């Protein structure tokens, strides 16, 4: 556990030192949400844009957390620091744990800022309970995205190898998880693919809690599945992260 | 006692044989050099010994331990400096060394970091981000990371490439001091002047061992070219590089009074190693 904290502290120190990365991970989602606002302002008034706002915010956090974490870990591999860490006495479990813990803080800040900007910019009015639940969904999704980034990075030898996973994993999330249209009308096989993607469960929860009356109990299964993704991906990443050539 | 034992070690990447049936013993407390052209297997061999490469056959023991099965026990006792600096560019030199030191739970770490930074002549730049360093300075930080936990055996993959001559010599003085205190240094290098500073050298090519000997004995394998001018007529002879052979050869010429000049051009260690490699290539072609 001590090694996990050492790596987490190093990840945070590294993030602090890499201002370009920090700006990209914290400011980019805010700018994209502003662009979203500009786009939604052009829609006719009968379109209920507010129902799309929070799910799209969740997607933006999902996409950026995944891509940035995957690229950073691939950089560790190409620069030789990942191999050096392992030979230096860090286990792969402590490396994955350290990275997750390091990004834990970043994901928290990301979730808070994105949610705060969306509520302010789109003039959304939700009660405190709903806002807390929204924060929890985006935050959990950010952690899932970090885990997904770690897992996918094990298949990439260079930064460019991460890019093919965007059309493979991220883009299907846009079309098949209920982000734009309800997935009920999709063919069954497409619905099954959609249900394999973590964004599906985040969108499910958000769609449930933005209704005027809802019960937290109705969201528990989706929250459970989202949490399950974290542990599932943690196990998968531990298996696929290789210590030897 | 041997610090490293390698028995019939082989590793291939697809059809390419990186290590071919390699066997080698490295005595404790020696500076053991690995030389050979690019792609000869130096880095793969080092990686196999630190447990970063899984061999296809054969085995290796480092300090009596299996690099894969006993990796946790072994990693406490080895230092590893890879060919690329393998540092965190956004962290300072001090933070990089501290990070790798903490992994090994080094006692009195801050003091040790100060000492090692001073040795590497990096004290004034200790708190600067490594990304602002030159290639040679990064190599120095990387060396510090490998030495911070007082390892019993140190694997260095081209440690002084791009390091200035003064610090290169300082590094080799440190390696010698460490070896005298019982630490084994396993070092790969392209720099032939460094070969002479090793206790024993292995010459590799295409994953095979071509020669294992002391640098002095390798030097003896070289030839001395004799170019003798008699009455402005030039005669040449090729003899083994030792004093007796040279005297015998000169006797053939009677050392007459009209011999106006005797020039000696001995092979350098670089020439000899290159000749060994080329000889093997010729053999294979024929």
How would you sum up this structure, described in words?
The complex is a heterodimer of chains A (245) and B (286). Chain A has one domain (2-240). Chain A contains 10 helices and no strands. Chain A has helices at residues 2-17, 19-41, 50-79, 81-87, 92-121, 128-153, 165-176, 188-196, 198-209, 220-240. The radius of gyration of chain A is 18 Å and the shape is globular. With 286 residues, chain B is α/β, with parallel strands linked by helices. In chain B, helix 3 packs across helix 4 and helix 3 packs parallel to helix 5 (135-147). The relative contact order of chain B is 0.14. Chain B has 10 helices and 12 strands. In chain B, a hairpin with a 2-residue loop joins strand 1 (2-13) and strand 2 (16-27). Chain B has a 6-stranded mixed beta sheet with strand order 5-6-7-3-8-9, with helices on both faces. In chain B, strands 2-1-4 form a 3-stranded antiparallel beta sheet, covered by helices on one side. Chain B has a 3-stranded antiparallel beta sheet with strand order 11-10-12, covered by helices on one side. Chain B folds into 2 domains: 2-213, P-loop containing nucleotide triphosphate hydrolases (Rossmann fold, 3-Layer(aba) Sandwich), CATH 3.40.50; 219-285, no CATH class. Classes of the chains: A mainly alpha (245), B alpha/beta (286). The A-B interface holds A 3, 6, 10, 13-14, 17-18, 79-81, 83-90, 243-245 and B 13, 47, 50-54, 68, 71-72, 75-76, 78, 80, 82, 84-91, 95, 99-100, 102-104, 129, 145.
């Amino acid at each position: 556990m001590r090694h996990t904290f050492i790596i987490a502290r190093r990840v945070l120190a590294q993030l602090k030192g890499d201002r370009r990365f920090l700006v990209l991970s914290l400011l980019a989602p805010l700018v994209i949400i502003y662009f979203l606002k500009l786009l939604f302002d052009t829609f006719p008034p009968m379109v209920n844009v507010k129902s799309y706002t929070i799910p799209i915010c969740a997607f933006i956090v999902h996409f950026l957390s995944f891509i940035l974490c995957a690229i950073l870990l691939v950089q560790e591999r190409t620069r030789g620091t990942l191999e050096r860490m392992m030979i230096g006495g860090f286990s792969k479990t402590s490396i994955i744990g350290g990275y997750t813990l390091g990004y834990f803080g970043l994901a928290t800040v990301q979730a808070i800022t994105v949610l705060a900007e969306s509520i302010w910019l789109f003039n959304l009015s939700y009660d405190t309970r709903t806002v807390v639940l929204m924060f929890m969904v985006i935050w959990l999704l950010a952690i899932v995205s970090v885990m997904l980034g770690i897992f996918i990075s094990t298949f990439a030898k260079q930064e460019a190898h991460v890019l093919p996973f965007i059309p493979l994993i991220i883009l299907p999330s846009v079309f098949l998880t209920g982000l734009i249209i309800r997935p009920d009308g999709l063919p069954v096989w497409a619905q099954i693919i959609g249900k394999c993607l973590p964004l599906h469960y985040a969108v499910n929860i958000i769609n449930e809690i933005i209704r005027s009356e809802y019960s937290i109990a109705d969201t528990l299964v989706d929250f459970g599945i989202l949490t399950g993704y974290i542990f599932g991906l943690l196990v998968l990443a531990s298996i696929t992260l290789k210590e030897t050539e | 006692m041997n610090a490293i034992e390698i028995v019939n070690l082989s590793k291939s990447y697809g059809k390419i044989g990186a290590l071919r049936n390699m066997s080698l013993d490295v005595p404790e407390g020696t500076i053991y050099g690995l030389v050979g052209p690019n792609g000869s297997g130096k880095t793969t061999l080092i990686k196999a010994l630190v447990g970063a490469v899984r061999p296809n056959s054969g085995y290796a023991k480092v300090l009596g331990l299996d690099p894969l099965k006993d990796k946790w026990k072994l990693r406490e006792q080895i230092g590893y400096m890879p060919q690329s600096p393998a540092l965190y560019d956004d962290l300072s030199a001090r933070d990089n060394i501290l990070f790798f030191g903490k992994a090994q739970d080094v006692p009195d770490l801050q003091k040790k970091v100060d000492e090692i930074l001073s040795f590497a002549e990096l004290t004034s730049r200790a708190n600067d981000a490594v990304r602002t360093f030159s290639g040679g300075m990064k190599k120095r930080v990387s060396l510090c990371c490998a030495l911070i936990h007082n390892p019993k055996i140190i694997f260095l993959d081209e440690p002084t490439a791009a390091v200035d001559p003064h610090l290169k010599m300082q590094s080799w003085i440190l390696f010698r001091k460490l070896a005298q205190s019982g630490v084994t240094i396993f070092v790969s290098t392209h720099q032939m002047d460094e070969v002479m500073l090793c206790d024993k050298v292995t010459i590799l090519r295409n994953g095979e061992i071509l020669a294992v000997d002391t640098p002095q004995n390798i030097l003896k394998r070289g030839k001395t070219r004799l170019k003798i001018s008699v009455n402005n007529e030039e005669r040449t002879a090729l003899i083994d590089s030792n004093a007796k052979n040279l005297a015998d050869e000169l006797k053939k010429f009677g050392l007459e009074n009209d011999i106006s000049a005797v020039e000696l051009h001995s092979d350098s260690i670089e020439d000899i190693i290159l000749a060994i490699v080329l000889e093997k290539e010729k053999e294979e072609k024929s």
